[in-house]
Amino acid sequence: MIKLKILTIIITILLTLNSNAAFKIKARTAILQDFLSGEILYEKDPDKSIYPASMTKIMTAIIAFDLIRSGDLNLNEKFLISENAWRLSSAGYSSMFIMVGDEVSVENLLKGIIIASGNDACVALAEGIAGTEDEFAIMMTAKAKEIGMENTNFANSSGINNTENVSTVRDIMLMSNYLIKEFPEEYKYFSEKEFTWDRTGGDPISQGNRNPLLYKNLGADGIKTGYLAVEKYSLASSVNKNGRRLIAVGSGFNSKNDRSRESAKLLTWGLTNFDLIEIAKPNIPIENINVWHGKKSTVGAYVNINIYKTIPKARKKFLKVTIVYNGPVHAPIKKDDIIGKLKVTYKDELVAEYDLFAFENVKKLNVFSRLMKSINFLIWGDV
């Protein structure tokens, strides 16, 4: 018999997140994601090819963080600065202002990349890790494919002019999401507002973080600006406010002011027009399911992931979270057996479905006990 159990979570919502229609942003391409639910709240040509400019540096940092985690690199390790890296500090590009022959720690190079947006620091880190920047770019592209960035190719470590260094705002969003999820401690570098480099042969240089949203009262804590004449201005940004995190990426802003204003507008729109609802926590029983011929009459059912839904505040309807199982479930049951489904529906339309797992082992009754149980069921209808 198929059993349906409607949970007490009945929330008024609109599940279709197509409330884009009345909202406009002055960017050539843009996307907004709720971090915990993963749902896209806004998009404008999100798969249009772009030159990611300095947003490329997010992946440069990820490669270093990966190697630090694996023990193949450490923050105190120092790399010798080549003439190739130094040239970028004297060519009008954003720079950390490293000098040929300097030995610079990985941590300082990372800060120079993330905070000061130093192209010279990118090359120095790439050469120190992979030998050449070309080899490092191969590592970057491989990592991009690994995390699902299907329309991205990296040709250098900094994002400076190269027609083969391409991506999309959707892919940059995926990369930003990966960074925040996989490296929460390292991500804190992206919120630092200033970096001082005690350079060789000169006075220390202090540079502010180029992300304009860090200086607004939005709850912004990252992540990276970009600019190329051919692409104009771009920004990957994130806010973390009142338990909610949003990630926005936009490219093709006409000016620095547009980049700052429109990105803030997009993030604010997401915070004020949507709510985040927690449906279930992982590894905690959310319902007891009846068991047939078991030494226990019920078994707890749980999901193995956090389940969130993002709820538009306008045009509200009913969301229903339903447990479905073919029951009672027959013993024996092993812990983590799939014993049912948790379904999220809107107006009888299925929008999400998750496996339910047994929380514990349930042994089968012996023959005599099973017989008595069957008799009780025939007489009283009790399992």
Question: How does this model look, in words?
Answer:
This protein has two domains: 113 residues, Peptidoglycan synthesis regulatory factor (PBP3), Domain 2 (Sandwich); 227 residues, DD-peptidase/beta-lactamase superfamily (Beta-lactamase). The longest helix is centred in the last third of the chain and has 18 residues. It contains eight helices and 18 strands. α4 packs across α5. A hairpin with a 2-residue loop joins β9 and β10. It is an alpha+beta fold and 383 residues long. About 3% of the residues have low confidence. 27% of the residues lie in helices and 32% in strands. The two termini are 13 Å apart.
Spell out the blueprint of helices and strands.
Elements: E1 2-13, E2 29-34, E3 40-44, H1 57-70, E4 78-80, H2 83-89, E5 103-105, H3 106-114, H4 119-130, H5 133-146, H6 169-182, E6 194-197, E7 205-208, E8 220-228, E9 232-241, E10 244-253, H7 256-273, E11 274-280, E12 287-292, E13 298-302, E14 307-312, E15 317-326, E16 329-330, E17 338-346, E18 349-358, H8 367-380
Parallel strand pairs: 12-16
Antiparallel strand pairs: 1-15, 2-3, 2-10, 4-5, 6-7, 8-9, 9-10, 11-14, 12-13, 13-18, 15-17, 17-18
Helix pairs in contact: 2-4, 3-4, 4-5
Question: What distinguishing features does this structure have?
Answer:
Peptidoglycan synthesis regulatory factor (PBP3), Domain 2; seven-stranded mixed sheet; Beta-lactamase; five-stranded antiparallel sheet; elongated; alpha+beta; 383 residues; 27% helix; 2 domains; 18 strands
